[in-house]
Every structure is written in C-alpha cells, then in structure tokens.
Amino acid sequence: MTHPEAPPTLPDRLPLLPGRALSRIARIPLLHKILLVNAVVVVGGAITGMTVALRHGALHPGHPHYGLMSGFAAVGLAVSLVLNYLVLRAVLRPLDNLQGAVDAIRAGGSGVRVATEGLPDERLGRLADTFNSMVTAIEEQAEHLKHLPGRILGAQEEERRRIARELHDEAAQSMTSLLVRLRLLEQARTPERAQERVTELRELAARALEDVRRIAVELRPAVLDDLGLTAALHAYVDDLNAVGPTQIEFLCEGCEGRMRPEVELALFRVAQEALTNMRRHAGASRAWVRLRRGEDRIELEVRDDGVGITPSVLRPGRGGLGISGMRERMALIGGELTIRSSPGGGTAVAALAPDRVSSSREGGGNG
After folding, report:
1. How far apart, in whole angstroms, are the C-alpha atoms of residue 167 and residue 265?
2. CA triple 243-246-248, angle to 5 deg
C-alpha cells in the first residue's frame, strides 16, 4: 500500500522521456547528476559566450564587452540555479515521501509503504526497499506480540493441567494405595502379616516420594541453577535411562563454563519437552542428546529412531506435542528451532541459541 500523500514520482513529471532513457538517468548517482548538469551549463555557456563574443567583436571592434559579459554571467547563473533546483527537487522528493511515511507510522498508521517504482536515484530505491522491509518486520513483530500474552496464559494453564495430571495419576494414586495398606495393617492378625504390610507401606512411601521429587525436578531442577545446563541434562538423561525403556546417549562438545541463565533454562526445557514427546509418542528404542558450544552459538539436538511426527503437526502455528511452546522459548532468547521428521524415520529437534559470554564464564560466577 502506497502512502496516500506521496507526491508524483519522476516519471509523472517527465512523460515525454522514453522509459529506457529514464531508467538510465535513474541509475546515475545524485552526485554525478549534479556534476553533469553543471558541466553542461559551463560548457554550453562557454561555447555560446565565445561564439557571441567573437561575432560582437567583429561587428563592434574596439567596443568594450562589459555589458555582454555581465549578461552572460547573469544568464549562466540563472540557468545553473534552475537546473540544479530541478534536479535536486526531483531527486529529493522521495525523501519527503519517506518522511511522510515515518510521520504516519509515528502517528499510529498501519500498512504504510513508500513507493519504489520510478525513483530517480538507485540508492533512494534501496533506501525505500529497506524502509518497507523494516516496516513489514515491525508489523509482523507487533502482530506476534499482540498474541503473545494469550499464548503465555495458555502455556501457564497447560502447565497447571500437566502438573495436576501428574499429581493425580501418580502421587495421588500412591497416597491412595498407602491408605489402603494402612487399613490392611490395622486388620492384620499376626505379626508376620503386619510386617508384610509394613514392607508394602515402605515401598509405596518410597515410590510416592520419588514421584513428588520427579515432579519437583521437572518444574525446576536445582542442578540447573547450581551446576548449569550440562550437568542438568546429564542428570535428566540418567533418570530417564533408569526407568527405560528408551536408552538415551548424551554427548557434549565444548561445554565448559556456564551459559546465560535464560539460555540454559530455554535449552533445558526444549530438551525436556522433546524427550517427553519421544517417550510418549515415538516408540523409539534409542535416542541421542547432543549439546555443542561454538564461538558464538549453542546447538542442542535431540534425535530418536522412533516412528516420526505427522507432517501436519510441524506446520507453523500448530501447537501439538509442545512444538509451539518450544518455538516460543527459543524466540524469546533470540534463537530458533527446527524439526526434521518423516514417518518411520525418526525425529530430530534442533535448537540454536546465540551465545554471549556470561559473567560466570568471565570468572565472576553466578553466585
């Protein structure tokens, strides 16, 4: 959409010029246009002046030429001023359009664009293209931010539902079993029977404690705060390997030192979500978690040999299997998420985050 107040472009003011000639003129830089105009004025004025002066001298020998010289100087100055004014006005008009578009955006306008057709200077065309691209990016970001609060609230509610489901399906069931075993213990008639019930109670209590501990670790693993992402991923993979059935291999390259806290948390959540999806849906026998730290970026890949993901789930805007949440987390830290999958060919979740040196890596620690 072109700004409604944009004045006509150069082709509107010069309809007699052929399109090819006008295109060639537009590609001439502004500095060269001005130099060319002045060169034409000087050369044309010099040739005309010499011709007229020679004729005037021949007709009026010995007559002073001061008046003629003054007239030529005045005419040359006037022509130079007029031509330079026309060139500068034509070339600088797009800047007025650009300023008008900036004012419209500042006033809250939307859909404002600067016309890029028929501009009299190639660099102004690039400037207009850059401006339009920036406006498009800003509008897309604004649209994204407009829906972000709703997505955050949705993610919070989904997390609450998940915690409630975990507590109901595991911890609450263990507590119910404890109550049942306590009643059976009350009804025990012999010491042997009572000892058997006590053993069952001890096992159930240990299982319930383990369920609560696992839920607490998933909510916020203390090792992530204390020792960092590498240790947290290593511990998480070990816990998953202990319960099976999928065997997971953890690989780490260049992971010395701490990363920024928000990067560590985002990458841990991505790995956690990817591994959870893998265990629930992939039917994989093996999986690999690879963390690699380069000079200016951190790469995390979670790959499995499972059944793969349905292509429709991978489309942008789809939130199935927590994919939308993983993408949002990476976007918040300036990173990106890519997922490669095919039916029967496994799934690879790759997260890429920028790595800026944290205070702990500089030697200050994280407290």
Report:
1. 23
2. 95
Q: First CA to last CA across the chain, in angstroms?
A: 53
* pLDDT, tens digit, 9 for 90 and up, residues 226-254: 888 999 899 889 988 888 788 899 999 88
- 49 Cβ partners below 8 Å, 6+ apart? 72, 76
Name every residue whose Cβ is closer than 8 Å to that of residue 346 and which is 6 or more positions away in sequence. Answer: 282, 284, 303, 304, 305, 306, 308
Nearest to 272 by CA among 259, 287, 257, 292: 287
Which residues, listed in sequence order, are joined to residue 87 by a DSSP beta bridge? Answer: none
* Contact indicator for 167, 190 with CB cutoff of 8 Å: no
Q: How many Cβ atoms from other residues are within 10 Å of residue 78's Cβ?
A: 10
Pairing of strands 347-354, 297-304: antiparallel
- Both tokens of 67, joined, read 């008046």
Residue 252's H or E segment, with its range, is: strand 247-253
Residue 334 CA: distances (Å) to CA of 42, 308, 330: 57, 27, 6
